[in-house]
User: What shape does this take?
Amino acid sequence: MDKRYLFDREKKKKIVEKVYFKTALEFLYSNNILSKFLLFFFTKFSFLSKFYGYLNSKKTSMYKIKPFIKHFNIDEGEFEKNRKDFKSFNDFFIRKLKPDARKIDQDENTLVFPSDGRFLAFSKISDLDNFSIKNHKFNLNEFLKDEKLAEKYLDGAMLLCRLAPDDYHRFHFPVDGTPTDTKLINGYLYSVNPIALRKNIKILSENKRMLTILKTQKFSDILYIEIGATNVGTINQTFFPNTEYKKGEEKGYFSLGASSIVLLFEKNQIKFDDDLLKMSKDNIETKAKVGSSFAKKI
Assistant: This one.
């Protein structure tokens, strides 16, 4: 199997990513008759993801925590509570971190990553056409299900974040702002792993997602979209609409599985950091943590 590389921003070097269930993912998206049938079964019927979530919310799932931490070399020193205090694998998965575990860049002209994850930056939405294969095109109108919003952001920029199963799965506000009510767009639960996305970028427009408009003073209106994926039937919002939040404050969290976040910006509002943009042009995701800079005001 081919190795998949990430650019680790903290280590300032490329690393090989450990992909959870890599063999299963490669088989499911291999496009043969059996894989097509299984993919249809697992993604079209949300009760399977809910059942998987139910099993991992039981106390009996606690045995998975220690080997998972060891396999992915997760820093337990960041956890708000001791590993032995988690009540299930899902309780560990949605863990909170100590207040000082992530440093938030407080420069008012800077946007910070909304979560831990693997990131791709596109200065123009049309740049996504270079990310996928097999002639699948990303359609902003299909993604947002709103023609007026699509027109508003058509020539804007996009930050695509993929949270792997081993990531901290709470997401935060990238800048000071006031969020609106969240709009639910129902959909399926395809994987958002690059193995799947490079087969079909339209997965982003087919999966279950939630859209919030974040009203800001410096960066105009930012669209904040959480996308559910395989084994993630629930996107949990913990914020209160029409309330002002500071950069780095929590917006919500994903339940068990992998998932994704998309941030959309209007034209001529931001300039992505050079290292993030350079890696993205080479289709290499940047591994980074919530609170560190990804763009500045133009």
Summary: DSSP finds ten helices and 16 strands in the chain. Residues 21-29, 37-41, 189-197 have pLDDT under 50 and may be disordered. The chain has two domains: 20-93, 110-297.
